[in-house]
Amino acid sequence: MRNQDSGNATGSQVQSVDRAINVLELLARNGESGITEIAGELGVHKSTASRLLSVLESHGLVEQLGERGKYAIGFGIVRLAGAATGRMDIAKLGRQTCQSLAEELGETVNIAIADDGVAINISQARGAAAITTQNWTGQRTPLHATSSGKVLLAYMGEPDRKRVLNHDLEPYTPRTTVDAEELDHELERVAEDGYAACFEEFELGMHAVAVPIHGPGGEVVAAMSASGPSYRLSKQRIRQIVRPMSEAAQELSAQLGYFTS
């Protein structure tokens, strides 16, 4: 009898899960529905439908609309969907965003991620005005001397950031910041401003600016940069292109499952 009771309990639980999924599919299809309508669609008593909705609501998967008693899909669904899309390949998702931004700005656009104390470029697109044909995809670049690296450092956990700053910082050009305390103060400004800039710090004659890309939990998972010759990508122009770059990064972040309130 115990085995039979256990089997009946398991069957009941599976049925409840199946009904809960049916509720979500119903609300996704209809937009909103009341308890009576949901119970009718499922072929169950209103009390059963009410219990299902109560459990789903407690997890944020459905929400009640005001005083009308109707229900709709909740933002908890967005959280679950974000966890799935966040695992998708950033390079693949970002390819079109990079290309569109490169065409808009006319400069080279890259996406980079942090890996073992360096930045690795995983996607690149060149604009019409780009003067270099170098492909940075797959290249490892220093965190402290590039705009993407500074963004990744600024939003990195404190222990990881300290590990980078505690190492000797290589001077790639006379303009590279190699003083850890000075760089740390700059990273604070980067986090406040939402972007980082480099002026001939990695290559003489080259300027760059980068913005963060967020994952589904809000964490910074990558940086998107635009780089070009110093005579064209001036400090003034960098301030002008931060906005379209941030908008492109927000669009890519949304594809990864991150949504701002």
Automatic annotation (TrEMBL):
GO BP terms in the entry: glycerol metabolic process; negative regulation of DNA-templated transcription
Specify the IclR-ED domain's residue ranges: 76-258
Q: Which InterPro entries match?
A: GAF-like_dom_sf, HTH_MetabolicPath_Reg, Tscrpt_reg_IclR_C, Tscrpt_reg_IclR_N, WH-like_DNA-bd_sf, WH_DNA-bd_sf
- Which GO terms label this protein's molecular function in UniProt? DNA binding; DNA-binding transcription factor activity
Q: Which domain of life is it from?
A: Bacteria
Q: Which residues form the HTH iclR-type domain?
A: 14-75
Q: Keyword annotations for this protein?
A: DNA-binding, Glycerol metabolism, Transcription, Transcription regulation
The function of this protein is: May be an activator protein for the gylABX operon.
The protein in question is named Glycerol operon regulatory protein
Please report the organism this UniProt entry assigns to the protein.
Amycolatopsis saalfeldensis
